[in-house]
Amino acid sequence: MRIAIVGSGPAGLSAAGRAAELGMSHVLLEKTDHLSDTIFKYQKGKHVMATPSSLVLRSDLDFDAGKREAILNIWDEQTAKLKLNVRYKAEVVKIEGEKGAFVVTLKDGDTILADAVILAIGTQGNPNRLRCDGADLPHIQYQLDDPTEYIDEHITVIGSGDAGIENALGLAADPAQGNVVTILNRGTEFARAKEANVKLLLEAQAAGRISVRTETTPAEVLEKQLVLDTRDGRETIACDRIIARTGSAPPRKFVESCGIEFTSPEREAFPVLSPVFETTRLGIHVIGALAGYPLIKHCMNQGYDVVEFLNGNTDLKPADEPILAEKFAALPGTRSVEEWLDLIGTKIDIFKDISALQLRELMLDSNVEAFRKGEAVFERNEPGSSLFAIAQGSVLVEVSKDDPSITVPIEEGSIFGEVGLISGRRRGATIRAAEDLIVVELSRAAALKLIATAPAAAKVVNRIAIERQLLQIFGSGLTRDDVAELVEGAEVQEKRAGEFVLKEGDEGNDIYIIRRGSMIVEREIAGKPVFLSYLPAGSYVGEMAVLDGAPRNASVRAAIRSEVIRLPGDAFVRLLERKPDLLKKARADVERRREVNDFIESRKENFSGVVDMYSQTAQFLVDNGIGEATDVLLIDETLCVGCDNCEKACADSHDGLSRLDREAGTTYAHLHVPTSCRHCEHPHCMADCPPNAIQRGVDGEVFIDETCIGCGNCQRNCPYGVIRMDSVPPPKPSILSWLFFGKGPGPGEPTKQWRKKHAEGAEQPKKAIKCDMCAGINGGPSCVRACPTGAAIRVSPEAFLSVAKLTEGE
User: Fold this and answer.
1) What's the CATH code, domain 484-605?
2) How many CB atoms lie within 10 A of CB 522?
3) For the chain, which residues make up each domain, given as ranges?
4) Residue 328 to residues 40, 52, 338, 401, Cα–Cα distance (Å)
5) Is residue 726 within a helix (H) or strand (E), and if so which, with residue range?
6) Fewest beta carbons less than 10 Å away: which of 193, 411, 527, 758?
7) Residues contacting 181, CB < 8 A, separation 6+
8) CATH number for the domain whose boundaries are 140-244
9) Could you tell me which residues are beta bridge partners of residue 511?
């Protein structure tokens, strides 16, 4: 036998079709009793996409977008017509021998001799299992065959890739079934899903058919219930059935038993492959999902190509060659596509552990650009959330906005732009080419997909982000070499809302940097936890125990779902010993915190009631969004006279539309949090904005630009109800015209009746409206400037939540 093909999915089927067309002796081994088990196990009626649309299909079997059943029928007909040599119920358990003389052993004991072996076995038979308490309960399933089977159930889909989204859509397609469908996404982005699927999911969410829960993971599975870890803490929902679609991994044990090496030790890594799909075991080729290419069109092209290569067609170029050639055409030099890919893959750290085939797919969603020495790649304060990787040359980061000569280099092979990728903030510095430069710019979607699907690449991005955050936080003239030991020992930990990072009285000397979210610092006084301070992202804790050698003297817990970086205390001590400036800075920070603790301790007998009140107020503010805010509008109701000047001023500063609702919101004691944007550190509204219309301004304000299409995703994603969909009203006459001649609706937001009466033609389409902190308006936020009594203030949470405020109350 010339070729033994293992697996009859799209890749294996296409390979067998090409072999049959060329008259090559072959056998297609399928362990089930039907073709293409991958597609066969799709849910009934599923619409199968044919992406990417720009890629030409190479195969002797047809494939186009359509229903699952129609595609399977076509392939059955064409398989018979082409006279493919298919052997069903033939599960391969062992591959021995060498190129030109392989022995393939089946489960029933039969053996097949072949010159070459093509593995097209996919990954769906090895799903990632849930890892939480109760994960072995019987109502958890990892496959959905027919969504119409389930009626009047509370069903939770875990996983927000294409499979999870399609399952959720199928379960919620017919309202008459009465299912209550929830889908969980551990993040805010749908990095693993096709754009078309994400759009359908958000439309279903807007129509009320599906509940989409972001930043949410399963904590414990119970009978008829599911406990969730959410952004704000634990929550229990009704749940009759769980469909877990959390991805799958290659069947590594079997593949490695064939003598095939993988790109890294990570569970989800893929085999090392040559440009002709050959593995490290010469004569065995891998294609399809096992090669890291899950899209059907890619799989079928690979099946066609690998057989052509085996037939001696060494001149055949991949189907994506013309697309990539066009991308590289503007670059200097005369390199071929293969030479450019080799340069990019070997030079750039985040690409070193992905296969050449994965790199080709990634490049389809990326741009490659050349810059001359001195040219700016991007400028400080530019919007942008893409990630850049240096293939050739180096760059200089202009770290001072006042003195461009103060720079920090970033070398060849590294990345930059990760801050914009992670946080959505505008570019924090100008980046210039230090020499002639070639960079790969990964779109936000491509970068997030790479991080989500390539563990080794995620580690590189994580390491660089940690290193740069350490240098930024600790400063004191530190270099990369200085913090190398800390970076090597660093561990990123997720903390659910309310979970402790440090506990008062515990031993330990590790340092924790708050990477995302925020923390509350408490100390037990008179048997009660007393609020000491609030720590936003970018702060660090734990250094007091390092310097004093004493147990932890306060507790630190997450205000909302957060991430911290744990740094080994022993390595931090060695760094302090080498760097006296850093030691001095750390001692100063410790002294400030000790003063706060001493202040609380000295007054505990005299104002315990005040302490209780302040702690409750602090907790109230955290519960109402201050825990992830960067700027919050607060109203002191002992000073507020209800004049509504704040709302009127806001409307008059923004085309007649107020961005706040003074009366709405919640109140504790005398403190009111009105409905107005908090400008979150990691804005929920930014997730899934199709035109990328939501940006961060120079001063950290979150604003919506004119590219908004009115889809409403931001309104649905905001947990605080501060975004509304509205159309801009017609221009109002001036305030003087209203005062002297009675023209116009007067100050503030015009009534709907006036807007309708004065609108020209059809009403304007609705767009998202939210506070932008009066960016570009002299004097700062209009709501604060217009308050006659000083009741309205805008503050950062750390400025309000401090013991200094308590001191003022004494």
Assistant:
1) 2.60.120.10
2) 22
3) 3-124+250-319, 140-244, 331-454, 484-605, 617-728+764-809
4) 39, 19, 11, 34
5) strand 724-726
6) 527
7) 155, 156, 157, 168, 171, 172, 209, 210, 211
8) 3.50.50.60
9) 567
In this structure, are residues 32 and 99 in contact, taking their beta carbons and an 8 Å threshold?
no
* 771 token code pair: 């506070």
Neighbouring-strand partners of residue 104: 95, 112
Helices (H) and strands (E) in the chain, counts: 25, 42
Q: What is the DSSP letter of 427?
A: P
Nearest to 575 by CA among 641, 488, 495: 488
State pTM to two decimals.
0.71
Given pLDDT bands bounded at 50, 70 and 90, which one contains residue 636? confident
Structure tokens that stand for 28 in this block: 């297609």
Structure tokens at 620: 């109230």
On whether the CB atoms of residues 341 and 444 are closer than 8 A, the answer is no
Taking a C-beta distance cutoff of 8 angstroms, is the pair 614, 805 a contact? yes
Q: SS3 for 99-122, per residue?
A: CCEEEEEECCCCEEEECEEEECCC
Task: Give percent above pLDDT 90 in the chain.
Answer: 39
Q: Kindly list the distances between the CA atom of residue 558 and the CA atoms of 490, 498, 592, in Å, as whole numbers in the listed order.
A: 19, 5, 22
Q: What is the dihedral of CA 583, 587, 593, 596, to 10 degrees?
A: -170
| Fold annotation for 3-124+250-319 | FAD/NAD(P)-binding domain (3.50.50)
Architecture field, domain 331-454: Sandwich (2.60)
Q: Which residues pair with 666 in a beta bridge?
A: 673
* CATH code of the domain occupying 617-728+764-809: 3.30.70.20
- Distance (Å, whole) CA 169 – CA 197: 9
Helix (H) or strand (E) holding 440: strand 437-442
- At 808 the pLDDT is 41
CB atoms within 10 A of CB 74: 15
Query: Is there a shared CATH topology between the 3-124+250-319 domain and the 140-244 domain?
Result: yes
Q: What is the pLDDT of residues 21-50, one digit of tens each?
A: 999 999 999 999 999 988 898 888 888 888
Cis before residue 52, ω within 30 degrees of 0?
Answer: yes
Residue 234, beta-bridge partner list? 229
Q: Write the DSSP assignment of 655-687 as a string of letters.
A: TT--S-EEEEEEEETTEEEEE-----SS-GGGT
Please give the single-letter amino acid code of residue 248: S
User: What does the alpha-carbon distance between residue 735 and residue 120 come to, in Å, rounded to a whole number?
Assistant: 73
Amino acid identity, position 469: Q
